[in-house]
Amino acid sequence: MSAFAEQNKSDKLLINENPVVSSKSVDTDQIVVLLAEMGADSEAASLTASRRSFNGTAYRIFKLLQWLIDAPLTVEALNQKFINDPSIGKAVSSDSVWLYINTLKALGCVIRRPSPRNGFAYEMLSHPFNLTMDEAQLETLAQAKIIAQRHFAHPEMLALDSLLRKLVSQGSLNGFPELVERLFVQSRSLDSQECRQRIEQLERAMLEESLLEVTYVSPLKGEEVFQFLPESLFYRQGVVYVRGERPEYPDPSSLRVDRMLGLAPLSNDPLRAELVARQHKKTEVSLKVMVSSPQAFQGFCLDPNQGVYQESRLWVDGSRPYYEVRLLVRDFFYLKQTLLSLGLPFVVMAPAFFKEDLLTTLRGMLDFYEAKEGEDHGGR
User: What is the Cα 303 distance to its own chain's centre?
Assistant: First the structure.
């Protein structure tokens, strides 16, 4: 089967399993429904104890809406944009474009079909996002963004941020910059558009495995300059972060992109090879997670650079089931935090150093708790 046929098949399956609103007019509440359905897919996928996957079709539909609002485009021009987008990087079939167009039509968009009269381009005649914003509608969009932030990966969130700016700007409203600012404040997030140039610089550096000199504003240390090998971008609590290696730390560091003042590539630095090798090194971790029912364990929600699932199997030992999980891990810090907040009994089978690290942390927590309890009783 060809790549286009595979793409078309997967897109049909995704769209058929996620029916969108079929009315010809749509309000902001329906945007929330669409995002909630897409988020629900991520939750369902996590029940298989697999890592959260990138919703590629949702991202492509967001981008298609954005591009058609800007200008009419032929299938060839659309595919060139798909190829140039770093989160897509490939063309799609004409059938897939047709499916995306029908999805937008179902949301209330009026799109003219390609013909000789319009240069064989898809043309956006109108869409239901020409909103006159009131307080309730602005709050609804903010809530939609909060829902998306719980489930979407950073490329989807960047596309959604751009789309939300378009929704606000297309309305008959005054004070557009102030409304955009309020939208992001109400959704407890930062406008990623403000650091778009930094994000693109980091994406190029990750592709080329380039070592960078970073000028960064730390809340504790103030402005500082250091070397950094970026590995991945991720989105957390309304902010875009970049994870990577710093020579002075053995574990990966996570930096807020909006706090970066400058990025400069460093060529032929002897540290680069060492950091690249460290970045690619992963350790296998074996765990048992005890559960009261198979549905109680929903995975660890680790992104690909925090942990890659090798295997996840359900076993029954006596009357109590448990999951046996094997991961390849580079960043043990996030795995430890996730396990401690899991709310389920677990056992680390291997490696020994990670098991000992967890025991040390738990003993320290217990010592603190007992000392605090003694102080409380002594004061009575």
Answer: 8
